[in-house]
Amino acid sequence: MKLELRGITKRFGALVANDHIDLRVEPGEIHCLLGENGAGKSTLMNVLYGLYTADEGEILLDGAVQRFTGPGDAMAAGIGMVHQHFMLIPVFTVAENVMLGHEQTRVGGRLDLDAARTRVREIADRFGFHVDPDALVGDLPVGVQQRVEIIKALSRDARVLVFDEPTAVLTPQETDELMAVMRRLKEGGAAIVFITHKLREVREVADRITVVRRGRVVGEASPTSTDAELAALMVGRAVELTVPKGPPQPTPNALEVQGLEVTDPTGAVVVDDVSFTVHGGEVLVVAGVQGNGQTELAEALVGLRTTSGGSVRLDGTELLGRSVRQVLDAGVGIVPEDRTHDGLVGAFSVAENLVLDRTDGAPFARGGVLQLGLRDRFAREKVEEFDIRTQGIDTPVGRLSGGNQQKVVLARELSRDLRLLVASQPTRGVDVGSIEFIHRRIVETRDAGVPVVVVSTELDEAVALGDRILVMYRGRVVGIVPASTSRDVLGLMMAGIPQTEADAA
């Protein structure tokens, strides 16, 4: 089935998320829609899938104009979507999830689960998926859950398949397996739209590439294009994809973590006997698939989460048991995983956010009175130094792009007298240009002799930034290895296989 989008425009108030976008996808083709977060890719696909209604433009399938009032219409027309965040019910079986919304019944109105099981087996056998129809979805690894999403779409005879950032929660090996599945679907005649911002994946699997920037198509590219060429199209300028850094120069000051344990509200251990040391002048990256305890580890290090055991010492001083305020006063910079909830106050100005946790004493407050002139002068300096794109220091920070919001957080944290930097997902949701800037500042902090802990689910980022990489799986440390370790070995470690076994594999 041939897909055409003509002049698709979608507005949200004054924001034009899609601006007269044209896209054509042929049967038996993988067409990559490449662009940074916020470029309008997912909005466009939500229009295609019937979740949004376009303000202008039209959708055509095999030359016939379509009118979708919801996802049911899109599915009935042969469009399937595999979402970044799985649309599955964990307590249901695979067969129950696949039939949900399209239930077949027997005489008397009873659900025909046997028919659903048969359909799952047929599709799984065709594509070599090895999925048990009676397995509970919540018990399956994320890579298998994604295959259930694909089976769900194919069970409804989808001939146009949309993959929206499908590799966000996968290990490198699971990503490679997904690429192989996409190629098999293509060989079967499916028209595939692959949405991503990861350049390596684009060049590996795409037949054609359309690049979107700020809601507009800015060009088409060939899969043979270099990463630098694709990045320049995405951002609109030349980008340094890997920030150069020399060998680490360790200093005596260090963060020492011993036997750290964290439990969740149900009593389950989510950080299990974690130990490591980071010296000044080096970056330790904590890597792993999202949900394996990295978030809880980072929050425990900075006092945001209560621990149930262990020790966290900075230059010999215990941090556990201290409040976040006391941890900050000890010289710890915190770049939180979710900047909008934990790093910024959206309604506050850029200037207010730049001194958000520094208004209770010198230099920005005296005798309980905020020194506005000093604060504003500081804010203007940081806006220039960190290249924060804003109309002014009085602009509410919630109006800035994701990359500029992250620069505000980074400017505030790196402006204190640092003895430790903990940065969780420092480049999540920012464009390639901002990634370049953020990486450079992190490397500069490391070169200044500060211990740096970076938590990242992006393997490319872990390799680019880290001097050493600590891999976590189900709350435990699988191993700590040099950043020069191969992607294949790191991927196996992220699946819980120790380094010695991963090397042998």
How are the secondary structure elements laid out?
Blueprint: E1 3-12, E2 15-25, E3 29-34, H1 41-48, E4 56-61, E5 64-66, H2 71-76, E6 79-82, H3 94-99, H4 113-127, H5 142-154, E7 160-164, H6 172-187, E8 191-196, H7 199-205, E9 208-213, E10 216-221, H8 227-235, E11 251-263, E12 269-280, E13 283-287, H9 294-301, E14 309-314, E15 317-318, H10 324-329, E16 332-335, H11 339-343, H12 350-354, E17 365-366, E18 369-370, H13 372-385, H14 402-414, E19 420-424, H15 432-447, E20 452-456, H16 459-465, E21 468-473, E22 476-482, H17 487-494, H18 499-504
Parallel strand pairs: 3-8, 3-9, 6-7, 7-8, 13-20, 13-21, 16-19, 19-20
Antiparallel strand pairs: 1-2, 1-4, 4-5, 9-10, 11-12, 11-14, 14-15, 17-18, 21-22
Helix pairs in contact: 14-15
What are the main properties of this structure?
Rossmann fold; 33% helix; alpha/beta; 3 domains; 6-stranded mixed sheet; 505 residues; single chain
